[in-house]
Specification:
elongated, five-stranded mixed sheet, alpha/beta
């Protein structure tokens, strides 16, 4: 059986994008060309790889097995081609990143701006998301998450050192309602909560006491998945909210927010850039890692 590498490449892109049109756009070909390549591959293998409807594309069981086997190899080949094509020493291509919405250091304007200026031939495509998923299976080059949720088989580079979460409120709320002396008192206060996605329970606020971690379900009066809205509400006096210290820092420094319960908010390993172990690391990804390390030192 002769292997059609172009068809395998098309199949992996359709599997990543869950879309024939998006795969065609990434390949720079027409949608019918991608459909024909997949059809030839299915006929060669004698199995159906994709379920197709007018609205969605999904992998069959056979498709899942094939994708798990070929996706790492296809990624290695792409990286090898990019390495060969970057003989002039200039990294290029599209760099796809999945970044947590609260990774403020990484998402800061200065960091991304200086990287884009240093590497004008790299097109940066960032998806800001708090969903946990396999970045390899979804076609991303790298991700940025808290270290505690990253798979151990990934290569990691620290983004900003240790972090901590804080409970904060406005001075007006503090003066009107007071502040809790212990996290267990939070359910008696007006709270602004966070959830990662619709139909997901609000995040339980995490603290530590005498070296032991514990969490509190605060029953927030307002819940959202948008940190910017949480900060707006907190500064307006709507209640106490909870999140990464870096997210609140500008408002704390201006006196618009005040930390509470700080003695129960220890530091922990923060955010990391992570990516899969490969023989060939694409120049565009290597450039990002090196720029991150330089940026941290400066």
């Amino acid at each position: 059986m002769e292997t059609d590498l172009n068809a395998l490449a098309a199949f992996t892109l359709v599997a990543e994008e869950r879309s024939f049109r998006a795969a065609a756009d990434r390949m720079g070909v027409t949608r019918p060309a991608v459909s024909q390549a997949i059809r030839r591959l299915e006929e060669t293998l004698g199995v159906t790889l994709l379920h197709r409807t007018t609205r969605s594309v999904s992998l069959t069981e056979a498709g899942e097995r094939l994708y798990a086997k070929v996706a790492p190899a296809i990624a290695d080949m792409r990286a090898a081609v990019e390495n060969a094509g970057s003989s002039d020493g200039r990294p290029r291509g599209q760099l796809r990143l999945a970044v947590s919405s609260i990774a403020d250091h990484f998402l800061s304007g200065p960091f991304l701006t200086t990287f884009a200026e240093a590497y004008p031939d790299i097109q940066i495509d960032i998806t800001v998301t708090d969903e946990e998923f396999d970045i390899v299976a979804e076609g991303y080059d790298a991700g940025v998450r808290l270290g505690e949720v990253i798979e151990q088989d990934m290569i990691t580079t620290s983004v900003a050192g240790d972090e901590r979460q804080l409970a904060v409120c406005s001075p007006a709320y503090r003066d009107r309602f007071g502040v809790p002396r212990h996290p267990r008192e939070l359910p008696a206060h007006r709270c602004i909560g966070w959830r990662p996605a619709p139909r997901v329970a609000p995040y339980r606020w995490e603290f530590a006491e005498h070296g032991k971690d514990f969490s509190v379900a605060v029953a927030p009066e307002i819940t959202t998945n948008d940190m910017a809205l949480m900060i707006k509400l907190a500064t307006a006096g709507a209640g106490i909210t909870f999140g990464m210290e870096e997210s609140f820092r500008p408002w704390i420094e201006r006196g618009e927010l005040v930390p509470v319960l700080t003695e129960y908010c220890p530091y922990f390993p923060g955010f990391y850039l992570y990516y899969p172990t490969r023989r060939n690391v694409a120049p565009k990804l290597r450039a990002l890692v090196q720029h991150l390390r330089r940026y941290r030192r400066s």
